Amino acid sequence: MRSSKNGKKAVTVVSGVLDIYKGYKLHLLATVKDKIIPLAWKFSCANEHDSL
């Protein structure tokens, strides 16, 4: 995703005093040995909680 400015699901999130986010989060599972190899990934909105 190049820009969250045009994303319809991109929202502004205020978390704490100075933490302000707008856009999306990338959750990435990768293996690292000689190279970084992505195994799985997921994009989510910035306002979604990360708990399982």
Radius of gyration: 14 Å
Q: Strands of the biggest beta sheet: in what spatial order?
A: 1-2-3
Query: For the report, how would you describe the main beta sheet?
Result: 3 strands, antiparallel
**Total count of domains:** 1
- Which runs of at least 5 residues are low in confidence (pLDDT < 50)? none
By helix and strand content, what is the structural category? mainly beta
* SSE string, helices as H and strands as E: EEE
Helix content: under 10%
Which geometry do the CA atoms define? Answer: elongated
For the termini, the CA-CA separation is 24 Å
Structure summary, number of beta strands: 3
Rounded average pLDDT: 75
Note the beta-strand portion: over 45%
List keywords for this structure.
3-stranded antiparallel β-sheet; 52 residues; 3 strands; mainly beta
Please describe what this structure looks like:
It comes from Anaerocellum danielii. The structure is a single chain. The chain has 52 residues and is mainly β. The chain has one domain. The chain is built from no helices and three strands. A hairpin with a 3-residue loop joins strand 2 and strand 3. The model has no long low-confidence stretch (mean pLDDT 75).
